[in-house]
Write a structure and sequence with these properties.
16 helices, single chain, alpha+beta, nine-stranded mixed beta sheet
C-alpha cells in the first residue's frame, strides 16, 4: 500500500493509531483492522518536547500489542504546539508587507472593544516587532482594477530591509487582494528571489475574504506560527520514520479534520486549536450511536475544560475566532476553553475568597497527591480527599497516589488560611470549579438562544465524568452520556476524522435570480481548488464529497450568518430556500427577521472532503435481566450538597453488561477516568458500551 495514500485505500490489516497530546497526559487510541479490537492507553506528557511522549507511547503500545512499527498503517496526531507558541509568544520574528498607508493596521485593529469601559484593559502583545511592518507603493480598487501599479523596486527594498532586521517569516496583505491577487502574487515571487529561505504567507491564498484587518491578522498569525510548526512537524515526521513507521503521519485541523504534514506547514493557523476539535468529532459519532442529536460536549482534562455544542449530530463551526486577542478567519469548531481542569490550583486570595484556576500544576509538578513535587492543592487533590477518586492508585493501577500529601497541601494552603475543615475545603474547591464550568456551558447555549434543557451533556476527558452529573444538575440537564473510553475520546476522534479543505470567496451581491451565474461561478472556482487539494492528498474520486454554504445578511448590516446550501450549482429553488433559511436563523439568533428586506450574499464557502476508512464498532445485544455488577469495594464519599461521608459502592466499568441499569450513588472506575454518580441518577448501559445517566427528582 502506498504510504502517502494509506488512509484512502481499503485497509484490512495493521493498526490505526490516534494520538492526542494534553497538558498532563498524552492519550492513544489504537484500532486493530484485522480483529476489530479498539485499545486505549495513557501516559504522562512531556511539555518540553511533546514528541518524546508520543514516541514513547507508540513504542509502549506496540510492545503491549506485540506488534511491529511497520504494522502501523495510519497515524494521526492532535498538537498543541501552535496554541502554546501563541500563548507563550514564542512564535517566529515576523515582518509585514502591505499597501502604503496601512502598515499600522495590526495595532489599530477595528471598532470591536471587548472591554469598552475598562481603562486598564491591555491590548494584545504586538506580533510584529517595531520597524518590521512596511507599506509598499501599490493600490487595487474595490472592483479589482489597478489604481496604482506595483512598484517592484520598492518591494525589493522592503524585503531587503526585513532581511536585515532578521525576520524569519513575512506576511503579505494588500488592499482588495481577495478580488485581484496579482500584486500579492508578484510580491511573493520577489520575496522568493530576494530572501528564498524566509517563510511567506500571502492573504489571497490563505483567506481571500473581505475585511482587511481580519485578513491581515490571519495572515500574520500564520506566518508567526509557520517556522515553529515547520520545525516541530518535521522533527515529528523524522521521529516516526526512525521508529520504522512507514505511514505518512497526519495532523488534526481546528475544523476537526486531518491534513498531511506538508499542508500543516503551509497553513499552521488551521491547527491552532487542533487538540480539542478531535474530541468534538468523536462526540458527534457517539451521539449518533445514542440517537442524541443535541449534545453539549464537556471535555475536562488536567489543564482546561473545553465546551462545545452539537446540533443535528453536527458540530458548530465558526468562520472567525479570536486567537490570543487576534481574529483568525479560519473555520474552527466553536469551542470555549476555560482554565478549569484536574490540575487547576486552588488558593485563598487576598480578600479571603476561595479561587480555583486558571493556573494549573500541569504534568510537572502535577497535583500534590501524585508525589512529583507538587505542593499546592488542585482539583484532583480535592477529589481524592472527598473519596471520589481512588485513594491508592489510578490509571488502572499503574500510577500510585498519596492521600497524605493531598491532606497536607489542603491543610496548609486552604484550611489554615480560611478556618474551613478539610472536608469543607475540598467540597468548596469542587463547588467553585463546577460553577466556572456551568458559566462556560451557558455561554455556548443559553446565551446563544438555546434551551439547555433540551440537550444531553456528554462528558469526556480524564476529569469530565468526575464532575458531569453535578454540572448537569445545576444547569437543569437531565441526561449525561459517558462514552466507553472518555479519557481518550480526543485520540479516538483522530481515527474518525476525514481529510477536509475549507475554501472561501467574497463577492457582495443581492440574493436575486439574475445573480445565480455569479454565485455558481464562485462555487465552481472553489470546487476546482478543492479538487486540486484532494489530488495532492491522493484521495480517489469515489471518496470525495463537497459541502457548501453562503454568508448572508440584510442590506446595511455588518454581521453575516452562514447558511448551508445543498449544491455548488444553485437553482432558483435553492436560492429561495437559502433566503428562507436565513430569515429563520436570523430570528432564532436575534429574535426578529424582516422577510421584506433585501438579503445580500457576501461570502461563499466550500469544503472539499476526503472520506477515510474508520473503525467499525459492533452493537452488542442487551441483557436487561443481567444481575447488578459486584462492587470492587465500598468507599466513604462526600458528595456535593451533603455534610457527611456516605458508604458508596465502587464498580469496575469493564464489569458492566449492555442492558444493565445501576442506581446511584456509586463510583465507576476505569483506566482513563472515574465516573461519579450522585443519588437520584441512574446508569443505563447501551449496546455500544455508552453510559446514559438519567436524573429523576427524588428525596
Amino acid at each position: 500500500i502506498d504510504a502517502n495514500n494509506i488512509n484512502h485505500e481499503v485497509m484490512t490489516m495493521g493498526y490505526m493509531i490516534g494520538v492526542d497530546v494534553g497538558g498532563t497526559f498524552t492519550d492513544f487510541s489504537v484500532f486493530n483492522l484485522e480483529t476489530g479490537e479498539l485499545f486505549h492507553y495513557k501516559d504522562s506528557s512531556t511539555p518540553g518536547d511533546p514528541s518524546r511522549a508520543i514516541v514513547k507511547g507508540v513504542k509502549d503500545v506496540l510492545e503491549i500489542k506485540k506488534a511491529q512499527a511497520q504494522d502501523v498503517v495510519y497515524l494521526a496526531h492532535g498538537t498543541t504546539v501552535g496554541t502554546n507558541a501563541l500563548i507563550e509568544k514564542k512564535g517566529a520574528r515576523v515582518g509585514l508587507i502591505t499597501t502604503e498607508g496601512f502598515k499600522d493596521l495590526m495595532e489599530i485593529g477595528n471598532q470591536k472593544r471587548p472591554s469598552l469601559y475598562d481603562l486598564q484593559a491591555q491590548k494584545p502583545v504586538p506580533l510584529i516587532p517595531s520597524g518590521c511592518n512596511i507599506g509598499v507603493r501599490e493600490r487595487i480598487r474595490y472592483d479589482g482594477s489597478v489604481y496604482t501599479p506595483l512598484d517592484e523596486e520598492n518591494v525589493r527594498q522592503a524585503v531587503r530591509q526585513l532581511k536585515q532586521y532578521g525576520v524569519q517569516a513575512i506576511a503579505v496583505c494588500t488592499l482588495f487582494s481577495f478580488i485581484n491577487p496579482a500584486h500579492e502574487k508578484r510580491i511573493k515571487e520577489i520575496i522568493a528571489e530576494e530572501y528564498p529561505k524566509v517563510y511567506t504567507t500571502i492573504s489571497s491564498e490563505l483567506a481571500p475574504e473581505f475585511r482587511e484587518y481580519c485578513r491581515m491578522s490571519t495572515t500574520v498569525l500564520n506566518s508567526y506560527l509557520g517556522p515553529v510548526m515547520k520545525k516541530y512537524v518535521n522533527n515529528f515526521q523524522t521521529s516516526v520514520s526512525e521508529m520504522g513507521i512507514q505511514a505518512e503521519p497526519y495532523i488534526t485541523q481546528s475544523n476537526g479534520s486531518i491534513i498531511s504534514i506538508k499542508e500543516t506547514i503551509d497553513c499552521p493557523i488551521k491547527c491552532a486549536v487542533s487538540g480539542p476539535s478531535a474530541g468534538v468529532v468523536a462526540a458527534s459519532f457517539i451521539g449518533r450511536q445514542c440517537n442524541a442529536d443535541k449534545i453539549i460536549t464537556f471535555d475536562m482534562g488536567g489543564t482546561s475544560a473545553d465546551i462545545s455544542l452539537i446540533e443535528n449530530f453536527t458540530p458548530q463551526v465558526s468562520n472567525e475566532r479570536e486567537v490570543e486577542g487576534y481574529p483568525a478567519r479560519i473555520p474552527m469548531i466553536n469551542i470555549i476553553t476555560i482554565g478549569a481542569g484536574g490540575g487547576s490550583i486552588a488558593q485563598i486570595d487576598e480578600g479571603g475568597a476561595l479561587k480555583v484556576g486558571p493556573k494549573s500544576a500541569g504534568a510537572v509538578p502535577g497535583p500534590a497527591c501524585y508525589g512529583r513535587g507538587g505542593t499546592q492543592p488542585v482539583v484532583t487533590d480535592a477529589n481524592i480527599v472527598l473519596g471520589k477518586l481512588n485513594q491508592k492508585r489510578i490509571l488502572g493501577g499503574r500510577m500510585e497516589v498519596y492521600l497524605d500529601l493531598a491532606y497536607e497541601a489542603l491543610d496548609r494552603c486552604i484550611c489554615e488560611k480560611s478556618g474551613l475543615s478539610r472536608a469543607q475545603a475540598a467540597n468548596g474547591i469542587i463547588t467553585v470549579v463546577n460553577s466556572n464550568m456551568v458559566r462556560a456551558v451557558r455561554s455556548v447555549s443559553v446565551e446563544k438562544g438555546y434551551d439547555v434543557r433540551e440537550f444531553s451533556l456528554m462528558a469526556f476527558g480524564g476529569a469530565g465524568p468526575l464532575h458531569a452529573c453535578e454540572v448537569a444538575k445545576e444547569l437543569g440537564i437531565c441526561q449525561v452520556i459517558i462514552p466507553p473510553h472518555p479519557g481518550t475520546l480526543c485520540s479516538l476522534g483522530l481515527l474518525l476524522a476525514d481529510t477536509k479543505f475549507d475554501m472561501s470567496r467574497t463577492l457582495i451581491l443581492e440574493g436575486k435570480v439574475e445573480n445565480l451565474p455569479k454565485f455558481n461561478e464562485q462555487f465552481a472556482d472553489m470546487i476546482r481548488q478543492g479538487s486540486e487539494a484532494l489530488d495532492r492528498e491522493g484521495v480517489t474520486k469515489e471518496r470525495r464529497c463537497f459541502e457548501f454554504a453562503v454568508d448572508m445578511r440584510y442590506q446595511r448590516q455588518n454581521f453575516e450568518i452562514s447558511i448551508p446550501v445543498p449544491t455548488g450549482e444553485m437553482t432558483e429553488q435553492d436560492l429561495r430556500r437559502a433566503i428562507a433559511d436565513f430569515h429563520a436563523e436570523h430570528k432564532r439568533s436575534y429574535g426578529y427577521c424582516n422577510e421584506q428586506a433585501p438579503v445580500q450574499f457576501v461570502s461563499y464557502r466550500a469544503s472539499a472532503i476526503g472520506i477515510i476508512d474508520k473503525p467499525e464498532m459492533t452493537e452488542q445485544p442487551l441483557c436487561p435481566a443481567a444481575p447488578a455488577p459486584v462492587p470492587l469495594e465500598t468507599r466513604s464519599v462526600l458528595f456535593q450538597g451533603e455534610s457527611e461521608y456516605r458508604p458508596t459502592p465502587v464498580y469496575q466499568r469493564e464489569s458492566f453488561i449492555p442492558g444493565q441499569s445501576i442506581a446511584g450513588p456509586c463510583i465507576c472506575e476505569q483506566m482513563d477516568t472515574t465516573l461519579v454518580v450522585p443519588k437520584n441518577w441512574t446508569i443505563h448501559v447501551d449496546g455500544y458500551g455508552n453510559l446514559k445517566i438519567d436524573y429523576e427528582e427524588g428525596t
